[in-house]
Design goal:
This protein is of the alpha/beta class and about 325 residues long. Helices cover about 35% and strands about 20% of the residues. It is built from 12 helices and 11 strands. The protein has helices at about 10-25, 40-55, 80-85, 105-115, 130-140, 170, 175-180, 190-195, 200-210, 215-230, 240-250, 300-315; strands at about 1-10, 25-35, 60, 120-125, 150, 185-190, 200, 235-240, 255-265, 275-280, 295-300. The protein has a 9-stranded mixed beta sheet with strand order 3-2-1-4-5-6-11-9-10, sandwiched between helices. Strand 4 (about 120-125), helix 5 and strand 5 form a beta-alpha-beta unit. Helix 5 (about 130-140) packs across helix 7 and helix 9 (about 200-210) runs antiparallel to helix 10 (about 215-230). The longest helix is centred in the C-terminal third of the chain and has 16 residues, at about 215-230. It starts with a strand and ends with a helix. The model has no long low-confidence stretch (mean pLDDT about 95).
């Protein structure tokens, strides 16, 4: 069993990835930590509690960061045009959910859980990397105790989605992302190189909804606004960004990867750009030297990934 802490900012594609983690038979979802990004942390935390209640998820929810790790960074408007004003595609969600939160902040929940399960925890992070960076700053030794970190974020050989060179999760807190990429733990970067070519059509999701239970029907409903947003890039469908990271946990063989040191540009016109110095490439001395070699996804078997998502979500 893979013991997973899911660090998330629900978020439509976050919701699909959450249901995948909850339902896959080889995954033990032991915690959900929330972060700001697709909406405020108050909203993303409310959404996590809502999905926990609606989908009967046992894992505790811990509320995380509400601002970037560098407080001088100005927050931009929430991407309501993508995920809806409530973060879940504008479906009906109560303003408050009558479920308790874990009393610890998310970064402390991560530290405590990793220390209680040395060498076993897989962190699946699909929002801004702020909680992970805060955990590393408070307790750097956890980097030696985590099994690995699988993130959805970044782009290396394809354009960005919030600037010509940057992907949204990394761009939202570049300093935090650079801390995470350069820490001495194994990071697997599932970025736009693979997620932007992994799509699910409206009809495919609708067929899943027809066959599925209440949770799958809710997922179909909350995805409609997101699919409408993607009309400029996908023919009547959506990119399933975060679910790709969840799939990697159980099916890494569906991905092609390279290894190398990864850095994140912090500031300037390339703010949030992710850059890999591939292992074996020779350059003059620079800021990538002496850093851990991370794993970067460059290829994906998209059809098999989408079919695995479908099969898992239909497990009632």
């Amino acid at each position: 069993m893979h013991k997973v802490i899911y660090d998330t900012d629900p978020g439509v594609d976050d919701a699909m990835a959450l249901l995948f983690l909850h339902r896959h038979p080889e995954i033990n979802l032991i915690g959900i930590t929330t972060v700001f990004g697709n909406a405020s942390v108050e909203t993303t935390t409310r959404n996590a509690l809502f999905l926990k209640r609606e989908w009967d998820i046992a894992a505790p929810v811990a509320k995380g960061a509400s601002v970037t790790i560098d407080p001088a960074r100005a927050e931009r408007e929430w991407p309501a045009m993508v995920h809806g004003h409530n973060g879940l595609g504008n479906i009906d969600v109560p303003e408050a959910i009558d479920l308790p939160l874990d009393p610890r902040p998310a970064h402390r929940f991560i530290i405590d859980t990793v220390r209680a399960n040395p060498g076993e925890i897989r962190l699946v992070a699909v929002g801004r990397m702020t909680n992970l960076a805060l955990a590393l700053k408070e307790d750097p030794e956890i980097a030696t105790l985590v099994k690995d970190v699988v993130i959805m974020g970044g782009n290396f050989y394809v354009p960005g989605n919030v600037s010509p060179v940057a992907e949204a999760n990394i761009h939202g807190d570049p300093e935090a992302a650079d801390i995470v990429m350069t820490a001495p733990w194994k990071v697997v970067v599932i970025g736009l190189d693979v997620t932007s070519i992994t799509t699910m059509s409206r009809s495919y999701l609708g067929e899943m909804s027809a066959k599925g239970d209440k949770a799958v029907k809710q997922l179909d409903a909350l995805s409609q606004h997101y699919i409408d947003f993607y009309a400029h890039a996908v023919e009547d469908g959506m990119m399933v960004h975060d679910s790709c990271a969840s799939v990697y946990v159980v099916a890494p063989e569906l991905f092609t990867t390279i290894t190398g040191a990864v850095r994140v540009v912090c500031g300037g016109i390339a703010d949030g750009q992710t850059v890999v110095k591939a292992d074996g490439r020779r350059f003059p001395p620079g800021d990538w030297d002496g850093l851990p070699s991370q794993v970067v996804a460059t290829g994906i078997d998209s059809e098999k990934v989408v079919d695995l998502i479908r099969g898992t979500l239909l497990r009632a």
